[in-house]
């Protein structure tokens, strides 16, 4: 399809901004609304229900009622499997439309949206649907007079609080395994990007998911806090900033000690060792790891730690490719980088760029954006001579700002890579398998890629160490397990 085709879809769309609670779209109880903005144009897309604790309470009551009734939680695995497979089928059917919604709501490239929304989203529901009837308890070894059954049961009402950088994918990372487990789900989308989650709520109902089992409650931070403090929410799965993740731990401690799963920030390193081949593959990975989604990615490899022997060649090739990046309309299939999520966030990114200049890093390309432009577009920026304790080497910028740090040996590279409060992701490029494993074994990160930039796929768990996350993981069988309780049934038959 062409750019004009996608724009034609936009012109036909009717955006739904109401909350979805107990199987129907509803306005916020207090009647409040807020404007939803297209970050690539600055134009208003629609008004969205500004929910609060009252709406959260209604949604939680509906979710609890559905859970306790057993209309979903106590059904045969084959029943949930069939419905989730139908859900996946319908999501594929509406893939282009949903991708366009995501594109204009988040400023993400249409090509990325087609991959994430039209392909990955239905695949996640299909994968967890297929897993439902392949998850078993066990019988433990006991005295012959005892039978000990270890069974898995859904945890209950689950709240998924998701970020704006991957709006639908993050919602699905929470919802698909939670629904497969038999839980009732409430999604709180980011206030900047609520439209795709609200759209698929109706598709969920069409697929046959019972009323109250899948709910979407848009709003601001007070909605997230209300979910975190609600005594009838059994678990919260959160993806977002480390600061807000800490608040959810507090909310749990001050309420019912609900389970909290956290996937938070990152400042991921990209290590290029002395023996690495500085070829197109490596350079493409370096560019993609930093500038994919405009750098608005928690696992973005912004700290690029390069051996002095290969740094000049690396910088020369990276700079040539950065200069070719086309920033602009995310609906244009020729665009390489879309917009930042908001004018406020753009100003934050620009502030970090200025900080890098002020602290003495050498800016080779990019710089502070033009604040007079209509959309919220940042310049892809490259810094050399970054020192490990500079602000741009420590803080999560969440924008297209690549900083190069120079090292002289592998141990120095490892030391700098470890100098972070985060531990989400790392990439290592080397031809020496021993060095690769040495770094992989010694870096406290949830995912480490060797000779590529990759976060894995649906089969592999995703999460972080240190201030990047808790013991919980998204994706893989690990995600399903975190929405299941483990119960032991001890039977005496002597």
Tell me what the structure shows:
- With 494 residues, the chain is an alpha/beta fold.
- The chain has two domains: 263 residues, Aldehyde Dehydrogenase, Chain A, domain 1; 189 residues, Aldehyde Dehydrogenase, Chain A, domain 2, CATH 3.40.309.10.
- The chain contains 16 helices and 21 strands.
- It has a seven-stranded mixed β-sheet with strand order 14-15-16-13-12-18-19, with helices on both faces. It has a five-stranded parallel β-sheet with strand order 9-8-7-10-11, with helices on both faces. A three-stranded antiparallel β-sheet has the order 5-6-21, with no helix packed on it.
Q: State the low-pLDDT regions, or none.
A: none
Tally the helices: what do you get? 16
CATH homology group of the largest domain: Aldehyde Dehydrogenase, Chain A, domain 1
Q: What CATH architecture of the largest domain do you see? A: 3-Layer(aba) Sandwich
Enter the CATH topology name of the largest domain.
Aldehyde Dehydrogenase, Chain A, domain 1
CATH class of the largest domain: Alpha Beta
General shape: globular
Major sheet summary line? 7 strands, mixed
Strand runs, count:
21
Distance between the termini: 70 Å
What is the chains' assembly state? single chain
Q: Reading side by side through the largest sheet, how are the strands ordered?
A: 14-15-16-13-12-18-19
Pairing-aware structural class of the strands and helices? alpha/beta
Average pLDDT confidence is 97
Sheet-strand content, in percent, reads 15-25%
**Rg for CA atoms:** 23 Å
């Amino acid at each position: 399809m062409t750019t004009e085709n996608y724009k034609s879809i936009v012109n036909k769309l009717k955006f739904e901004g109401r909350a979805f609670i107990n199987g129907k779209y509803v306005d916020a109880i207090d009647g409040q609304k807020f404007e939803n903005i297209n970050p690539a144009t600055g134009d208003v897309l629609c008004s969205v229900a500004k929910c609060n604790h009252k709406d959260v309470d209604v949604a939680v009551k509906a979710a609890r009622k559905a859970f306790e009734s057993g209309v979903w939680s106590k059904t045969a695995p084959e029943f949930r499997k069939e419905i989730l497979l139908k859900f996946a089928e319908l999501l594929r059917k509406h893939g282009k439309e949903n991708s366009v919604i995501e594109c204009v709501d988040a400023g993400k490239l249409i090509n990325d949206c087609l991959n994430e929304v039209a392909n990955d989203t239905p695949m996640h529901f299909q994968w967890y649907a297929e897993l439902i009837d392949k998850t078993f308890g066990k019988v433990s070894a006991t005295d012959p007079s005892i039978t000990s059954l270890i069974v898995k049961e859904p945890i209950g009402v689950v709240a998924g609080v998701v970020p704006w950088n991957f709006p639908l994918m993050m919602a699905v990372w929470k919802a698909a395994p939670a629904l497969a487990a038999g839980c009732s789900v409430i999604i709180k989308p980011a206030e900047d990007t609520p439209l795709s989650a609200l759209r698929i709520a109706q598709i969920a109902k069409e697929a046959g998911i019972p009323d109250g089992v899948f709910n979407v409650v848009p709003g601001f931070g007070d909605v997230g806090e209300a979910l975190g403090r609600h005594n009838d929410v059994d678990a919260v799965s959160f993806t977002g900033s480390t600061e807000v993740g800490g608040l959810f731990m507090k909310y749990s401690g001050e309420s019912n000690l609900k389970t909290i799963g956290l996937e938070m920030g990152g400042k991921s390193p990209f290590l290029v060792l002395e023996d690495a081949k500085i070829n197109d593959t490596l350079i493409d990975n370096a560019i993609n790891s930093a500038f994919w989604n405009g750098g608005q990615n928690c696992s973005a490899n912004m700290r690029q730690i390069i051996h002095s022997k290969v740094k000049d060649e690396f910088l020369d090739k990276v700079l040539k490719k950065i200069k070719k990046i086309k920033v602009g309309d995310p609906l244009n299939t020729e665009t390489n980088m879309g917009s930042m999520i908001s004018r406020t966030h753009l100003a934050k990114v620009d502030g970090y760029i200025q900080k890098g200049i002020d602290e003495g890093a050498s800016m080779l390309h990019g710089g502070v954006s033009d604040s007079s432009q209509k959309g919220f577009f940042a310049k892809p920026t490259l810094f050399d001579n970054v020192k490990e304790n500079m602000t741009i080497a420590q803080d999560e910028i969440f924008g297209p700002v690549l900083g190069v740090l120079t090292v002289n040996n592998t141990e120095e590279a490892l030391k700098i890579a470890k100098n972070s409060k985060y531990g989400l992701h790392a990439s290592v490029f080397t031809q020496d398998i021993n060095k690769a494993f040495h770094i992989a074994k010694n870096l406290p990160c949830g995912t480490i890629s060797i000779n590529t930039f990759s976060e894995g796929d649906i089969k592999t768990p995703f999460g972080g160490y240190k201030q990047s996350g808790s013991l919980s993981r998204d994706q893989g069988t690990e995600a399903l397990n975190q929405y299941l309780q483990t119960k032991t049934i001890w039977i005496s038959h002597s």
